[in-house]
Each structure stands twice: as C-alpha cells, then as structure tokens.
Amino acid sequence: MLDKTKQGWWKKATAYQIYPKSFQDTTGKGTGDLQGIISRLDYLEKLGIDVIWLSPVCASPQVDNGYDISDYRAIDPMYGTLDDMKELIAKAKERGIGIMLDLVLNHSSDQHNWFKEALKSRDNPYHDYYVWREGTPESYPNDMKSVFGGPAWTYVPHLGQYYFHQFAPQQPDLHWDNPTLRRELYDMILWWMDLGVEGFRLDVIDQIAKEPDLHITGNGPKLHSFLRELSAETFQKGCLVTVGEAWGATPERAQLYSAPDGSELSMVFQFEHMCLDLEPGKSKWEIRPLPLVELKKNFEKWQHALHNCGFGSLFLNNHDLPRILSRWGDPQNYPAESAKLLAIMLHGMEGMPYIYQGEELGMTNIRLPIEAYKDLEILNMYKERKAAGIPEEQIMESIYQRGRDNARTPMQWDSSPQAGFTTGTPWLPVNPNYTEINAENRLADPNSVFYTYATLIRLRKQYEVFVKGDFTLLEKDHPHLFVYQRHYQHENLLVVCNFGGTATEWSLPPYWHGATCLVQNYQDTPVNGLRPWEARIYFKNEVN
Ligand code: TEU
C-alpha cells in the first residue's frame, strides 16, 4: 500500500477509471450503481490499483451521462445515496484505494438551482454565475459552435439574452470571473475533501477561462491564475492527486499545470498522442492509419518535457475514446498479444497510468444500429452528417471507429446473461463477445492480459526506474519497433515492442544479455527476433 500522507505518493500509483453507469448494477434497473462498485472492490484490489477515478455520480438529469451536474453535493439516485458514497470511500480506503472524484467545474446542468435562479431575472444574484450576452432571436452574439454540434449560444426570450455553452444547451458554462461563484465551488470541493476523497479529475479544466468575445474557449489568459487560486484554496490543504483534462495542452503548458511546487495540479491529460490517427486539421470522425514513427516521437517529446520539471499521465483509453485494442491493436488475430503490447508500451514510461474499465480484459469496440446508441455526440453528429448528404455507410463506419459509446458498453464480468452486469435490461447493449471476453475467464487464466496489467502496476511500485528514470528512444525511424530505454541510478530498463502482425528481425543488444525479463507477452524469451506483437521489458541492476 502506498503511504498517502506523503506529498507525491501518486507518482507510484496507477489509477482505474470507472464509468459508473456501465460498471455493475445491483438493482436490476440496467444502470450501474455505487453498491455495484463496492461489490467489485476485491477485483480491483487484485488488479492492484491505487486510485479509482469515478466518472460523475452527482445529481444530474443525465443529458451527458452526469457531466451535467444539477447538485454538486448530492449523489444521483440512480447511483445510490451519500451514505453509499461514504461506504465506498471507506471500503476502498481499507484496500489502499483512493476515490478520485470527477469535478465538472466548467459548466453545470441547466437544472442546477443556480441556473434556475439565473433565468429569473438579470438582477438575480445567480445570473452572473453564467456567461450572458445581449442579442435578438435573429442575431447570435457570434458564430461560436458547441462541441456537440449547433451554436454555442442559446437565447432566453424573457431576458433578451443568450447564454454561452461550449457543450450541450443543457450544460451552461459557469462564469469564472465571478469571485462568489469561485468561492462556492471551492467550498464544495472542501466539503468533498472532508468526506475523504483522495483526488479529483477536473473536466475540461483548460476551458474554464473562456473569453467568448475573443472566440477563446481553451487556454484563456486567466487560466493559470484561476488554477493557482483554486489549488491554494482547496487541493493544497490536503495530500491529493489531481488531474486536469486539457485537450489543448502543450508541453510548456503541461509544465505549468504540473509544476513540482504543487501550485496548480498534479498532472494533466493531454491528447496529442490520441489525435495522431486523425486526419490533421479535420474532425475526430476523419481517421487515418496510426503513424507509429510519429507516435514514438510524440511520446519522446512528452517524456522529455516533463522529466524532472512536471509530471504526466499515461493513458490510451477513457470514456470518450474508442477501445484501444480495436483502435491500435489486432483484436481478430492477436487479441491477447496486442492488448498486452499496448499495456507494456505505455506502462514502461514515466507518468501516472490510467486504466479504463475493461481495458484490463481486452474489451473491444461495438457495432450497433443507430437507434441503439445513447451518446448525444453520436446522435447529433449522425443528424448533422445525414443532413449534409454524407452516405449512411460512411457515417456508421465512423461511429464504429470513433463513437464514445464504444467505451461505454457494460463491463463484462462473466458469461452469464448480460455479462453479469445486470439482471435487467442494460441501458446500452452488452458487447456480444462477452461470452469469451470477461473477467471470470481472465482471472482463471494466469497468462491473461489482466495479469499483465497487474504485473505492470506492481513493477511501478517495486522499481524506482519506472517512476524516476530518464527516457531514451531507440530505433527512432523503425516502422514497426517501439523500443526505449530508461535509466535511474543503478536501475536500467529496456522496453521492446514489435507493433504489428509481422515478425521482425531484432537482436537483444549485448549489454542486455543476461538481464532479467520483468514482463513479456509470449511464454519464452528468445534473444533474436520478435514475433507478431511481441513486447518485453528487461531490467538490469548496474551502475552505467
Ligand atoms: O470531455 C471534453 C471534451 O472536449 C469532449 O467532449 C471531447 O471533445 C469529445 O468527447 C471527443 O469526442 C469532457 C468529458 O470527458 C466528456 O465526457 C463530456 O461530455 C464533456 O467534457 C462535457 O462535460
């Protein structure tokens, strides 16, 4: 167990993201709940994780699955009660697992009492909690668009004003320039800290300092001063781990966010590596094959940028991204090998790894008829593209590849009906491959991908080099090999990955002969040649 009273404890930690709606149902209503998570803590303990990032469980009309909060201090009845939450915090803590709450501070739900008050009149005290501009029904304040499609402005006739929303109209943006609003948010965060949460994930945190008149959403000029105030007023009063979602982060900005003095956050999620298989300059729906050489150089850039002057996160999945095994691996021909390679490639690096529920089982994308999808982004995009005359087949293919519901199908626990997720009808269909891909099968097989993750989590705690080692990329321009070395004092690591379904010539450099193989995805470790999707980590204890 990590000693969580020491600042920086999270540098050795691994997090596991739970999307509560799809994790474990205990009532038969078809949606997961907090008691379901509690019932699966033994499983998570076995995996060895230290932190659960819990996607939002606060009261919400669920327009965006909880990323539209109507009461920051209440649990949505769908998930249980505040007592269930307290029980989860306590029972997780007994197992050395901390709860990282998802804070949505950029916007609230339109059903939040603040917004209901704000709608009453221009001089209501809550009116200024949101971002308003003058207008008429015919003329929008400007042409800014919402991430989920349509304008970023919605008109309120009785006020003669528009409010600003970067996401759905039901997610009005909060007005961070207002100090009363900021204080209210800080008090809420302190209240959760008192309840014993050990961390926070901050939704779209780079977008809080928007300046709509300047067409600025991300990285507004006041962003870092807001963050420093937020951190001083809340996080720095505890010993927490914090991670901000920052799509627009550059290495320079990430250094600010994760400054070692703790003045802002522990780290951010940046997404450059997750955009390399998208057509440059186009939407997330226009995809291209993964350019491996660019991926390697991108990781190299980030590993160097944050080494000793910040900290990074390591992830390939979350609730907004398609399943990585379907995206960059080979679920048809080499499901186990490629899933393990992706884990080994990532977990050998510096940073805090985040595993998304089901990733440790090798869960994959799903194909559903359009009526079965639930995500508002998918449904809006489908309508917009249909109206623009894009062929049905092309739209559906992009949903199969990139839709957010790929990640949101229920967790596959066993081969019983509905994968053991619910006794009722699941809110989103279970992937039919659950009869094979499920936790029960994985736990029974000592060579399964589950145990590769468990090993990687353990190694990070065991060897300092995983946490503190420098990073040297080898075979930079090799089209299939991703090889890197790490070094800290007398500890040395070599991570070797053969990306793809063809065997590749390669021989272990003489320095590494006799080194220990800490983890591998084939049973034996020949010195020469790499088999399809083969990956290994070597360790050598020697001053060099
Ligand atoms: O995501 C931020 C965000 O920008 C995403 O909408 C992203 O662009 C999209 O998912 C790409 O497909 C966060 C949450 O992670 C997401 O689930 C929420 O919908 C969003 O904020 C609004 O709160």
TrEMBL record:
Gene3D superfamilies: Glycosidases, Golgi alpha-mannosidase II, Oligo-1,6-glucosidase, Domain 2. It comes from the Bacteria. Pfam families: Alpha-amylase. The keyword Translocase does not apply. Keywords: Glycosidase, Hydrolase. GO terms for molecular function: alpha-amylase activity. GO terms for biological process: oligosaccharide catabolic process. Residues 17-408 form the Glycosyl hydrolase family 13 catalytic domain. InterPro entries: GH, GH13_cat_dom, Glyco_hydro_b, O16G_dom_2. SUPFAM superfamilies: (Trans)glycosidases, Glycosyl hydrolase domain. Belongs to the glycosyl hydrolase 13 family. This is Alpha-glucosidase.
